[in-house]
Amino acid sequence: AASAAGHADELAARGRAHERHLEHLARDLLAGASPEVLLASCQRAGWQPPVSLTAVLLPAVQARPVYRALDPSTLVLDDLPDATGVLLVPDADRARLLRQLADRTAVVGPARPWARASASY
Q1: Each residue of 34-79: pLDDT tens digit?
Q2: E strand or H helix at 58
Q3: CB–CB of 114/51 below 8 Å?
Q4: Which of 3, 47, 71, 99 lies in the 20 to 30 Å Cα band around 26?
Q5: Looking at the whole model, is its pTM more than 0.85?
Q6: Dist CA 110 CA 33 (whole Å)
Q7: Range of the domain at 33
Q8: Structural domains counted in the chain
Q9: 115: closest CA among 17, 19, 47?
Q10: Cα maximum dimension of the chain
Q11: DSSP string, 59-94
């Protein structure tokens, strides 16, 4: 039982570390980091860059529920100082994304090349 619990703890710790790497990548993208920094963040996070990213701004409390309904490669930040959440949606079909967000208070930016996601924000 102790071995199983230890294994479960290790998996949980890895999951938290992976999530931290994804959040760090999202912050780098929004900050307009250099391509070298972005590629290093992608590698650490195990995240395959898409062609484009679309920023979605919405109340932070809605970020995780909406995130779960989108592409699993979507990046999410829900701890920004102004209680705003940001989703960076890969290769989004804009019309479909707008339909998915129709019942939410959200602002959808334009699609931009992934390394220039800050231009969608």
Answers
A1: 999 999 999 999 999 999 999 999 999 999 999 999 999 999 999 8
A2: strand 52-59
A3: yes
A4: 99
A5: yes
A6: 19
A7: 2-119
A8: 1
A9: 47
A10: 51
A11: EHHHHHHHHHTS-TT-EEE---TTSEEEEEEET--H
